[in-house]
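Regression check, 6R9 case 703:
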Amino acid sequence: MTDNPEAEVSESQIAVHWREEDYYQPPPQLAAQANAADPAIFDRFGEDKFPECFAEYADLLTWDERWHTTLDTSNPPFWKWYVGGMLNASYNCVDRHAQASPDKPAIIWVPELESDEQVTISYGELHRQVNEFTALLRDFAGLQAGDRVTLHMPMVAELPVTMLACARLGVVHSEVFGGFSGNACGTRIADSGSRVLITMDGYYRAGELVDHKVKADEALEEAARQGQEVDKVLVWRRHPGKFASSTPMAPGRDFYVDELLGGFAGAVVEPVSMPAEAPLFLMYTSGTTGRPKGAQHSTGGYLAYVAGTSKYYQDIHPDDMYWCMADIGWITGHSYIVYGPLALGTTTVIYEGVPNYPDGGRPWRIAQQLGVNIFHTSPTAIRMLRKVGPTEPSKHDYHFKTMTTVGEPIEPEVWRWYYSEVGKGEAAITDTWWQTETGGFLGSTLPALQPMKPGSCGPGALGIYPVIYDEDANEVPAGSGKAGNICIRNPWPGIMQTIWGQPERFVDVYYAKYNRNADSKDWHDWPYFAGDGAVQAADGYFRILGRVDDVINVAGHRLGTKELESAALTVPEIAEAAAVPVIDDIRGRIVEMYVSLKPGVSADGMAEKVTKAIEVEIGKIARPKNVWIVADMPKTRSGKIMRRVIASVSNFADVGDVTTLANPEVVETIRRHVQSAKAAKGETPRDLTDAERAEIATYGAAE
Ligand code: 6R9
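Current build output:
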């Protein structure tokens, strides 16, 4: 405790010092064509209409048999949606559009090298490719409904073809992000019990042809070590007929897909009609330690939810040119590159490479050339593009009607650049808050109906009723300025069904915290605990502060890292900022900031500017002890700053495993720079306690 009266607030209450932002109104021209243009939609999804309101999403799909029960709550919290319904996801994403408009582009694949040809796959052609590969999976690999298959594929059109072929048979795919290591893939093969791995020989990343096949061998070794044998490895080739890897093929185990496909030319496989409740795929999400969590998503509920949210939140129409610049290896790519857009019969752009290859103008050249009118990406990508090419968008002739951001809180400064430079002031931004576990959007604004507020995702999505609870399960009221744990009061169709093979963990992690009665069959007693801190403004909009462990408690004030980082980013010269806690004997924790600068900016005076900005935006309480200027932040391959690594550096603690970083080499440079400077200032800390060590080692982790 300190003598500061604010320290009297209960543990769960976080004093939020973030200034309220002004509204931006939806662009008027959007309403004329928007899928959600009539405010009556809010009534249709009113709480009194729950759960039947979600029939509207399911009705976007073609069912072999209609469901009899929209929501079955007989085994909480294992909700069942559209019970009795039968459908096939591949049919819904391919066949029905191939019948209606066979020549319409389904996928446009943009290779990373600009000298390589783009590939346009029509719905008719997609139908052919999916069917042939389905036949291969069934007849050559011996797969059938309910089997699990691990995919370890990069951003190529063959990835959705593979997913949709699995779905056609009712085979459960488990795609592991291509940037993950062989070992990470092997762990997921073992956890899911896959005996087939589908991979690729190589792919382009930052201008280089990466050997990817090598990871398959590592993966199989790791899986075997964990007791799972794989009997077939199917290898797509980046250049069919030409092997792009120096890793040998194991005879009798490894097979080139393009060679096998010849035997299935013209094959047609009837889609297998699956119960709505059949699992469609697993998507592993990072646990901090131990076993990864395979979020299991359903066929009917998931597909209905991503179709509905794609339609209303991204305003996707069949004739749009839609580009989600994310990786299919993450949930965003599953829901909003593959299943949502294809279920709606639109054209989805898939880009192989990194956003800034060969330069910061690349995304805007692609947008101009293809006539992209819906754009979707992450704050990290936006910050990076802003850093490397702040005026590039204006040099290109494209027009977006809606733009999505996802994955992290977006700082208002960055939001405004996205809005005015990338969107040219004419596109609505939907800041979509959700998770691997939730299948689709949970919080966002409807682009033509609700004003935007930089840094806030908006209210609960249609049919989603969020609430903020403190640690004692008291509701934290809107407009109170206090943060707490954001939860969803009700079930929704996109929620995962369970954690694969770990149903107890599913209940423990997501429901145990706020469950009111373990025997209750009433969904009202089972709020979903999202694990994010949030604050709700008086207008009902939520501002997501980050994972609940992303909070720094300074002298009784809990400061959201995003608040600090956002403050630092108000300094125009700052490109990226990360805040970490440092153990302090007087104030518990103090803040240290890591920042990188925009190109050409001198470091002179920057630390002072950042400190001043934080004092101005938040208050002296949040003053960082140090501001470290670094050339590059340690980042995961999905682009998230690994705060535990810099937190460890600042605390002279072990940085732990850095092999999963995209740029592990920066860690040692940062460590030497920071620790020698701290040692020179006499800031070498005392020995940390075990609890302190654990906190630092997991700081910013997602669980
Ligand atoms: C879709 C996805 C989930 C975590 C989530 C939250 C953060 C996602 C956000 C956001 C603020 C947004 N997050 N969207 N924070 N604003 N619009 O990213 O899934 O990789 O599982 O991450 O990402 O902390 O809990 P996933």
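Comparison notes: The first helix runs from residue 28 to 31. The mean pLDDT is 92. No diff flagged against the previous build.
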